[in-house]
Amino acid sequence: MAEPVTVNDVLDGHVALDLECLDRIYLNAYVPNLQVGGQVVSFLTAHLGYPIPSPAIFDKIGTAFRRAVAQFAEDEHIPVVRFTKTDRKIDKMRPYIYIAAQARTGRSGVTAIGVAQEYANVFTGAKREGSTGVPWFAFTRADRRVSCYYFYLWDDEFGPGFIKICAYFPYPAKIWINGHEWAKRQAGHAGIGFTELSNGFAAIDDPAGLQVICDRLGPEEITAFADRWFSVLPVPLTEHDAAGGYWWELSMRQVEVSRTIVFDAPRHVRGFFEALVADNLDIGRPEHVELIFSRHPVLRGRPPSAQKVFKTNVVTRGVAVTVNAFYKHSRIKQYLKDGRALRIETVINDTYDLGAQRRLHNLPELQARARAANRRLLDTERVGQGCVLASPAFERIAHPTTTVDGRRAPALRFGDPRVQALGGALCVGLLAVTGITNKSLRALMTGLLGEPYPMNRASYDLIRLRRKGLITRIPGRNLYRLTDDGLAFAIFYTKAHNRVLRPLMATDRPQAPPEMRAAIRTIDAHVHARLAQARLPLAAA
Questions:
Q1: DSSP for residue 45
Q2: What is the pTM of this model?
Q3: Is the pLDDT of residue 285 over 80?
Q4: DSSP secondary-structure letter at 264?
């Protein structure tokens, strides 16, 4: 029988390229000085000089913007496409993007303009009358269906992208770019030869040089892209507005931080992913069945209408398999890329999930934390398939010991239901990324034990794990990280129990594998024969 392939077998010696890079970046563009009603009044009166801050001014600015877009499209011979409610925009616009002269020549330009009616958070004005009968207007935010313009671009530095601008006050905008596409163009400018992967690299002449290029992409390059195109496109804000401090700033709406591991042969990447999926299917996370643990953060103000879910799952669509780990609004996903590479991707839908703020200048901090999450997830999977049975660490864990400072460290005995539940809880790969708290441990243990698991019991178990060196506390926080021994303990105890002990204990039951039942029957027959030869009654045995 062929020996099963493990993650470590494939990663050691079969990796042709290992690259960390920003992938898709989706940004909000907003005007900081136009966020509340009082700022709107100041904009209309003190800045624009109107005596009465009327919402009719919004229509005037919006109409001028729409006319400017139409004139721009006519002057530049740019196709205008109107989206319907059911259209998938990228599918409808892809032909315009890649057959345009800009895409063929690599020169910057607008390839197409899309027009859609979408809901946006804009200001509305309501007329009021004071006690003297003098009218005045109150401005509040509301979601309204308004016109939005999608400018699909081909940029010399970033390749394909788009900028979406809302045609109603305060003119929120969005920007979409791709870090891998930017890196491809920078590698070309630097004279570094490469073979493309869809949305990535399959091979590169200078891997270290390419990593330096990927590390260079940051707020300065992205801000320059936005400024460059806001100066080219028709926009509702003017130079006078910009001089008065009314201009867009960028914040992060969605950021994908990827790690791509390209293997030297397709069979190795398939072997890697089969080993990876096997673990995710085996340890409490069957296909399409989600392990949900309610680690809900404490929120101020009104409670949310729907509880947030934290889960891991394996999703299969046809022959494409994706392993997902969800955390708050974000997730980490793993999947095969073109059958040649493994892509690990942290998708951040809310920067606060990783403890970073949203403004664009915080991108380096966010990227560092997302890269660390990708690395911790892969390290967890490596440890999960690299446990050594005879390791002294397991002997220390299974017996009572004393710490260096003389404190007693109780045993974590294999087979004890509570200890096995602890191992199963710590097996959840997401905890290696997010850390462990008393609350998250209670949520997992309650489900695994099938009975209440109070706070004091969780505190005692955290003390046991810490004194055994299986977790370490992050200074200044009630948050713990798994150590290497902790990962090995959790995964070995869970695998040994679920894959070895439990099948052996179930050999006389119909669900046991037929080969194992046959082997046990053979052993049982030989034992009975030995007893009969020794003339020992069966009851005495």
A1: I
A2: 0.74
A3: no
A4: S
